[in-house]
Amino acid sequence: MIKQFLIIQLLLGVCYADCDWSPDKPKIKESLINGLQKSDVICHDHIMVLFNKEIGFPFATYAIHKQEQMTRLEGGRKEFIPDPNIPLNDQHLPNDTIFHLPYSRGHLTPSYIMTYDKSANGAWEETYYMSNILPQTAYLNEGAWEKLEMNIVDTLEQQPSGTVWEIYTGGFWDGKNELGATKDEIKTDYLFWKALCNRKKCSSGLITAYNHDGVLRWDVVPVAKLLPGLFDQCCPWNKALSEWKALLNNVNEHPVIV
User: Fold this and answer.
1) How confident is the model over 166-191, as a mean pLDDT?
2) pLDDT tens, residue by residue, 44-92
3) Domain assignment of residue 52, given as a range
4) How many structural domains is the chain composed of?
5) By CB atoms within 10 Å of each CB, which of 153, 162, 212, 213 scores lowest?
6) Is residue 15 part of a domain?
7) What distance in Å separates the CA atoms of residue 43 and residue 35, rounded to the nearest whole number?
């Protein structure tokens, strides 16, 4: 019976085990964060997805980025496809109406930063799985958020050889850590975030972009302040945040940094 169950799981392509390649093991069941509590770990070779099948979207995705990779980025775009490791009925599909204006398909782990590997089923292709997508307004997706992503690439490239950054990216709605009331509804207020860790320096920080009534506010705080359970072994209460605050340079005209 157990053997039959495992075969069925393999046929479905479902993977709820820890990602062996990831040094970070999110504290899901112990977390007080609702969205994280409801997440299953979906493993790929380069991206770990914390997926909430109740809403058909990720709570967050996680990837490892190395300084030497930043010199080999090629760029490019491709079509979004369903995540092969998640049943179709549990995930949103590329043309779902939830992605109509004013929303678009917003990468969590960015496409560009993974273009050091454009092999079949490689790092770049994993960024185009629908498990790496949240609805994001074009105003943010193609503006300040994209600038933040490019600042990360440029800054990491300038770091000493051997530097490694681990990054979670996710989103909250209305401060409830949930995407919306139903699988097909999202709310007008949103908060996108990136939790970053330089494990060698035991330095971490959380960058947030909060939109309310069309006003976008930025903040940088210790990871554990909003996301206890992530980067538990990377000084989650670190308050020396200057290296992470620097990633907001020129992100918009008036970033709010507390």
Assistant:
1) 63
2) 999 999 999 888 899 999 999 999 999 999 999 999 999 999 999 999 9
3) 2-248
4) 1
5) 213
6) yes
7) 18
pLDDT band at residue 257 using 50, 70 and 90 as cut-offs: very low
Question: Per the domain annotation, does 253 fall within a domain?
Answer: no
Whole-angstrom distance, CA of residue 130 vs CA of residue 107: 9
pTM of the full structure: 0.87
What is the distance between the alpha carbons of residues 108 and 167, in angstroms, rounded to a whole number? 10
Residue 188 has pLDDT above 80, yes or no: no
Tokens 């490791």 -> residue:
85
**Residue 254 pLDDT class (50, 70, 90 cuts):** very low
Please give the pLDDT value at position 17. Answer: 55
CATH number at residue 186: 3.40.570.10
Let me know the angle formed at the C-alpha of 95 by 56 and 50, rounded to the nearest 5 degrees.
Answer: 25
Residue 255 lies in a domain: no
**Do 144 and 252 touch, CB atoms closer than 8 A?**
yes
Residue 107 lies in a domain: yes
Measured distance CA(19)–CA(84) in Å, rounded: 16
DSSP structural state of residue 160: P
> Average per-residue pLDDT in the chain?
85
145: nearest Cα among 252, 256, 32 = 252
